[in-house]
Amino acid sequence: MTEVAAMTDVPPPAPDAPKKIGMLEQPWVEKYRPTLLSEVVGNEETTSRLQAIAEDGNLPNLIVSGPPGTGKTTSVKALALALLGSKTKVGVLELNASDSRGIDVVRNKIKSFAQNKVTLPESRHKIVILDEADSMTTAAQQALRRTMEVYSSTTRFALACNLSGKIIEPIQSRAAILRFTRLSDSQVLSRLKTVCTSESVSYTSDGLEAIIFTAEGDMRNALNNLQATHSGFNHVNQANVFKVCDQPHPETVKSIIKACQGGKTKEAVAGMRSLYGTGYSCSDIIATIFKVTKTQQIPEPMKLKFLREIGFSHVKIAEGNATLLQLLGLLGKMCEVGREMGEKEDAMVVE
Ligand SMILES: Nc1ncnc2c1ncn2[C@@H]1O[C@H](COP(=O)(O)OP(=O)(O)OP(=O)(O)O)[C@@H](O)[C@H]1O
Ligand SMILES: [Mg+2]
Predict the structure, then answer these.
(1) The AAA+ ATPase domain covers which part of the protein (predicted)?
(2) Of the residues 29, 45, 48, 74, which should be mutated to test ligand 1's pocket, given the most ligand atoms within 8 Å of the CB?
(3) Domain spanning 250-345 has what CATH number?
(4) Helices and strands per DSSP (H, E), number in the chain
(5) Bridge partners (DSSP) listed for residue 177
(6) Cβ contact 55:84 at 8 Å
(7) Could you tell which of 132, 185, 220, 226 is best to mutate to test the pocket of ligand 1, judged by most ligand atoms within 8 Å of the CB?
(8) Which residue's alpha carbon is nearest to atom 16 within ligand 1?
């Protein structure tokens, strides 16, 4: 009885609550996943080749490789849809890294799919999509070699991966390799703006710039960060984006680099100590130092020397030497460069 009373005590949901849950249910990356090849942003050369394959209808075995979040899975799926239309369900076998894809699966599942008879549009092939194929074991890939050849009259393979080097050479030689590159800032920006408009997101241009800065040409990352900032703060500006993305704030890093340029070691070290104290890892910090240095207005010779030193420190940090001392050592070197080159500039001015 008391339980029932307690249950009836639950206050009714706020009128706007269901809307919010509905909004959060579908991630924007999925909601705005292009279904047509023509909607895929960027990598024009690659997508136009895929488009040509879709029009021609003769799909070669394909390997699509490139960095994450650039549209590989999307393009391969869009290609399959363009080729098979309403028959996509029966004519496509999609296996990704979450499915088991050992030798047994190649021997049984893929083989039996290739042997199956299905009615497809004329001169079309069944398609096996192996997403994240670089995570397949070498043995499973070896088992695929002969299957690809034996059933080539009825079945074609489309492999998507991040590193084409992880696909064994015999499969590479049986397939056409298409490469995706990171998307440019303007391509990500235009897509973000489209999404902002259709989701009525309130944003500032520096907010979108911050998303692009953190995404580094990865559209999935950009859309996820946009959605996270929107649902967390209801307004996308620079400060909110950096709160959500949890990366060292580029403005803080900028001021440290500025101090190095002027050879002000004390100031740079104090800035770094407080940044490190906020809990960021060394690799996050050094990655941001690199990105900021790359884009900041610094005289070219000095920038090159800075990047060289940052590179050396990045290697040491990646090797496991991730300590504050490492970062401070880097600042010491950068300040030395700043002082030497700054003096030279001053001397030139005096002359
Ligand atoms: N070129 C693009 N044009 C439009 N949207 C894109 C593009 N690339 C990625 N996206 C967005 O990012 C999401 C993820 O893209 P996709 O799954 O194709 O990435 P991927 O290249 O396969 O990455 P991964 O290597 O991590 O598998 C898509 O749902 C889509 O919303
Ligand atoms: Mg993918």
Answers:
(1) 58-193
(2) 74
(3) 1.20.272.10
(4) 19, 5
(5) 63
(6) no
(7) 220
(8) 71
Ranges of each domain in the chain:
32-179, 185-245, 250-345
Q: How many angstroms does the Cα of residue 41 sit away from the middle of ligand 1?
A: 9
CATH superfamily of the 32-179 domain? P-loop containing nucleotide triphosphate hydrolases (3.40.50.300)
Q: Which two tokens stand for residue 218?
A: 């990865």
Place of tokens 């959060």: 24
Q: Where are the alpha helices (DSSP H) in 65-130?
A: 72-84, 88-91, 103-105, 111-115
Binned at pLDDT 50, 70 and 90, residue 6 comes out as very low
Q: Which residues of 114-147 are buried (b: 16+ CB within 10 A; e: fewer)?
A: beeeeebeeebbbbbbbbbbbebeeebbebbeeb
61, 148 in Cβ contact below 8 A?
Answer: yes
Query: Which ligand is in closest contact with the Cα of 130?
Result: 2
| Span 69-91, pLDDT tens digits | 999 999 999 999 999 888 888 89
Most distant pair of Cα atoms in the chain: their distance: 94
Which listed ligand is nearest to 75 at the C-alpha?
1
Query: Ligand 2: distance of its center to the CA of 287 in Å?
Result: 24
- CATH class of the domain comprising 185-245: mainly alpha
Position 134 pLDDT exceeds 60:
yes
Kind of pairing, strands 62-65 and 176-179?
Answer: parallel
Q: Which atom of ligand 1 is nearest to the CA of 220?
A: 12
Residue of the nearest CA to atom 25 in ligand 1?
68
Q: Which residue out of 43, 64, 73, 199 has the highest number of ligand 1 atoms within 8 Å of its CB and is therefore the one to mutate?
A: 73
Whose alpha carbon is nearest atom 24 of ligand 1?
Answer: 68
What letter does residue 39 receive in the DSSP assignment?
A: G
